[in-house]
Amino acid sequence: MTRVKKGVNALKTRRNTLKKVKGYRFGRSTKERAAQEAIFHAGVYAFAHRKDKKNDARRLWNIKLSVPLKAAGLSYSKFIGALKKKEIAIDRKILADLAHNNPESFSRLLKKVA
Q1: For residues 21 and 38, is the Cβ–Cβ distance under 8 A?
Q2: Residue 114: its pLDDT value, please?
């Protein structure tokens, strides 16, 4: 079998790896093995934090909802329970947006639920 030198492919792989870690600190931006590990960890963190971002958004919606509800003398859990009993299918994202941007519509919804 003939000898195959992998110079071109190896250099291309190295170049692509080092492009991905541009701006990283210390050896992770210059050394191939450290760069590979940094890319791997970055991917793991990116995946986990995409999931966390959804959780953070939902928490924010709950907070945006609970403030006007407390002013109306209602708790968040009782409000959500009342919505389900009345079969009003509006998700928390829309409810939080209503409470924040259209307080008059939100108050009409509160009267309908209570």
Answers
A1: yes
A2: 78
Q: What are phi and psi of 101, to 5 degrees?
A: -100, -30
Domains for the chain: give ranges and CATH numbers: 7-113 (1.10.1900.20)
Q: Which amino acid is at 74?
A: L
Pull the structure tokens for residue 23.
């701006």
Question: Per residue in 56-65, pLDDT tens?
Answer: 999 999 999 9
| Distance separating alpha carbons of residues 76 and 80, to the nearest angstrom | 6
Q: How far is it, in rounded angstroms, from Cα 107 to Cα 114?
A: 10
Residue 2, pLDDT score: 87
Average pLDDT, rounded, for the chain: 94
Structure tokens at 113: 């639920």
CB 74 within 8 A of CB 110: yes
pTM across the whole model: 0.70
